[in-house]
Specification:
alpha+beta, Apoptosis, Tumor Necrosis Factor Receptor Associated Protein 2, Chain A, flat, 6-stranded mixed sheet, 377 residues
Length: 377
Amino acid sequence: MPFAGVSVITNGKLCLSTTSDVDAGAASGYHLLVVEGYSQTKEMVSNGKHIMSRPFVVGGHRWCISYAPNGDSSYSADCVSLHLVLLDDDVAKAVKVRFGFSFIDQVEWQNPIYIRETQTHSFSSHDSIRGFDDAVRKDALEQSKHLKGDSFTIRCGVMVYRDLDTVDAGATEVPLPDIQQHLNRLFETKVGADVTFNVSGETIAAHRCVLAARSPVFMAQLFGPMEGAATCDIQIEDMEANVFRAMLSFIYTDSFPEMENDEAEVEEEQEVDEVLYATWMQWMQDLLVAADRYDIQRLKFCCEEGLSECMDVSSVTSTLVIAEKHHCQYLKEACLNFLRVSPSSLQEVMATSDWEHITVTYPSVLNELIAMLASKA
């Protein structure tokens, strides 16, 4: 993906010397947002306020990144908000775009660690902002490996889908890859589906060859010597339908799925926040378990990364159990580090019955934590 410039925010202000209006010269590109002096920026920019990056050009349109260190709204006050903004004010036809945000721990290596990515969205002059109010929790960012020397770097990758009606007759530019869209349409329409799964009372149709190509467990189950491999109707135990659908969505598109919305009504705003967080954490944990069960390693790592970035005192214990049970070393280290750096959090967690369960069932975890605390001392 071509480079589309870099913006540097230093101590709450956009650096004037930052290169701007860099044109990727293609229908896709990425822009880097470097935040230096994160702590002071967080103090200077209050909730509901944001800092805009320098403009950059991808797909013939001008864009910028909106960074809100204390969230864009009261709902997201505990989070960092990230949005992509279309700057063109004369767009005659909606621009279809796919974009995502990721951490870059070392800019020269360009090895992105997933934060959030989207399905295709339409931007226009009247609907010019898309993104995530709750891109990453502040406490998770502050305890993560991504914040080094009070600084971090975010990469925003943008892919603009061309309107074929506007392409010159003599143009020879190769269209962007769209196999993800095609496979997602196949999954949604169920055309040619040749196997069904009964999950928590719901029936979900899929395609054997796609599942087998992406999961060695499905390969063995659907085409191997296992008893019942030829069956077209499979019962799935110990999994919710929304989790199974999310896993299949990842199998078809190789993109991290969005959690299905719960229509339950909650009156208080704070209660909404707490319920949404608890629901999302449970969904992520269940999705990790599903990924491990079907040996989908990339999805498993994405879940580990998401859980490690968003854990708090209420979820660290259950996350630690999941990590130990499913051999997630990266996630386990993140949980133990969360407890190590915050004595008050550790004390609160150790007073729970869940922690007692961990010490009895997984004594090695307690030994590792003691070793980490000893090394800190």
